[in-house]
Amino acid sequence: QVQLVESGGGLVQPGGSLKLSCVASGSIFSINVMGWYRQAPGKQRELVASIPSGGGPTYPDSVKGRFTISRDNAKNTVYLQMNSLKPEDTAAYYCNADVRTTFWTYLEVWGQGTLVTVSS
Question: Which of 2, 32, 59, 94 yields a CA-CA distance of 20 to 30 A from 107?
């Protein structure tokens, strides 16, 4: 009913930048929080950034000052600008959204993931 599609991942050198995009489509009444998570091999999935509709962003210390999340509500799209990338940022990055599909129904939706590799 609702899909999230990420794009923008790839291979970059340490210190480089990437911008990820995620567009939501389908039966959408409204979207509350949108965010980005990542999962590296052997580790649990962790929050990278989140942003509510009409609110300010949240970042963990590991990315604060380097990553910036933003959203375009008219396009149902969330972005993640990643600067000063480090090898430890290497992971599969997943888009997440808390979607209200009808007046009565809420759904948490995940994207398929996009791989970010930071290596020299």
Answer: 59
Q: Which residues contact 53 (CB under 8 A, 6 or more apart)?
A: 30, 31, 32, 33, 34, 71, 73
In contact, 93 and 20? CB cutoff 8 Å:
yes
What is the 8-class DSSP label of residue 52? -
Answer yes or no: are the C-beta atoms of 19 and 70 closer than 8 Å: no
Q: Within 13 Å and on the Cβ side, how many CA atoms surround 15? A: 1
Distance of CA 49 to the CA centre of its chain: 7
Inter-residue contact 93 to 37 (CB < 8 Å): yes
Fill in the amino acid letter for 74: A
Burial class (CB in 10 A: 0-12, 13-18, 19+), 71: buried
Q: What is the token pair recorded at 9?
A: 């991942």
